[in-house]
Amino acid sequence: MNLNLNNKNALVCGSTQGIGRATAIALAQEGVNVTLVARNRDKLKAILNELPEHRNHSFIVADFSDPRDLQEKVIKFIHNNHGFHILVNNTGGPRSGNILTASLEEFENAFVQHLKCNHVLAQATIPFMKDEEFGRIINIISTSVKEPIPGLGVSNTIRGAVGNWSKTLSNEVAAFGITVNNVLPGFTETERLTEIIKIKAKNTDTTVEEMTKIMKSQTPAKRFAKPEETANVVTFLASEAASYINGINIPVDGGRTKSL
Fold this sequence. Notes:
By secondary structure, this protein is of the alpha/beta class. It has eight helices and seven strands, in the order βαβαβαβαβαβαααβ. It has one domain (9-188, 226-252): 3-Layer(aba) Sandwich (Rossmann fold).
């Protein structure tokens, strides 16, 4: 299948580790010019060196706790360099914990880092997408959009908000050749999953190894996903081959989500 991504420009957020890093690499391998976004300059430089050298790759240093600064930096980059055909919204999830004990600050921080940042990035990138009559906005969220996950109260709440924001936006921009979709990773071998396993093990007075086995057993595939497996789905959604897929949630979870 020809994905027709050669020389497209992509803005990939949270791209120094996990699914973000894997997505940046996967897109670059399809001929995309990738601009990485994260807050650690040294890590960004290291990932930049992993991308194919014959492409026009770059990075933006930004902190997702400040959406206005993020927006200004992206707009400045677009003005000085180029616009983006593809936007991959991806930010580390809120910390674990029950919803009843969550502070207002936790909700506010998660709302800023996820929904607000997604929104300002969409506003910054969509004008170019409209001009090109081609745009792909892909949000990395969570299977909690379909089924809330116990012990992730703030995350469940904010992910749902992002899902509804995405669906609403998809209806508004579809006529311009722009699609907006959500990818819902299941248990994926990332630093985030390692943190969750440690917390679950501590809360249940068991070992990390035993909790790992328990969580793998909850997935029909009986294993965790590789970040690259999710990145492959993102890459397909970013392509011309996915031009009529819009406004949906796609779980990449080995069958763990029980709902259709």
